[in-house]
Amino acid sequence: MKRKVLDQILTSGGGVLLLVLLFVGGLAAWGYSFANSTVHDQLAAQQIFFPPKSAFAHAKVGTEITPSMIPSVSQYAGQQLLNGAQAKVWANDFIAVHLSEMPYGGVYAKASTAAMKLPKGSPAYAKAEGVVSTIFQGTTLRSMLLEAYGFWLFGQIALWVSILAFLLAILMIVLVGLGFWHAQRTPETQAVKIVERSRIAT
After folding, report:
1. How far apart are CA 106 and CA 164, in angstroms?
2. How many Å apart are CA 56 and CA 67, to the nearest integer?
3. What is the pTM assigned to this prediction?
4. Phi/psi of residue 60, nearest 5 degrees
5. Which of 40, 106, 124, 148 has the fewest CB atoms within 10 Å, i.e. the most exposed one?
6. pLDDT digit string (tens) for the chain, length 202 residues
């Protein structure tokens, strides 16, 4: 095979790979933008704000701010909840803490089962129903926030895929350019040298 033909084949293959990388990078960038903006808009509509910084100065078990919240929740003090990282912290380090302090550890199935065993219409039943309703609302909000976090995380992964694809595309542009340059300098008659290794009998 002529060396010029081989160079042209390899360079063309590099060009195809370049197009693939650009497509993947563009698609991943769009995925990141879509996931990020969707999560932001959905969370912004909920108008959830982290407690102010002053609230963490008096953290106490059984109150709105507990000592366990200081390492994680306090980093977003006073901010509006707008992204997946914040949603994860609010769900796992704020809501989950308050749910765990409720009867039955804040587990909806346990609280609901216990409430159904009480006589309907009794004061105890009404109180239990209130607890069940609160647990249900907290659990639902927590699951929604964690779903937002998961969707946001996929967006972050797409961002890194996009960056990697575009970096590889830049590398391929250089290699394809060098390939075309080398193909232009290679004589039409030059052939690919094939070196055969001879076996030495022992």
Report:
1. 43
2. 8
3. 0.77
4. -155, 140
5. 124
6. 555 555 556 566 667 888 888 999 999 999 999 999 999 999 999 999 999 999 999 899 889 999 999 999 999 999 999 999 999 999 999 999 999 999 999 999 999 999 999 988 889 989 999 999 999 999 999 999 999 999 999 999 999 999 999 999 888 888 777 766 655 665 555 555 544 454 444 4
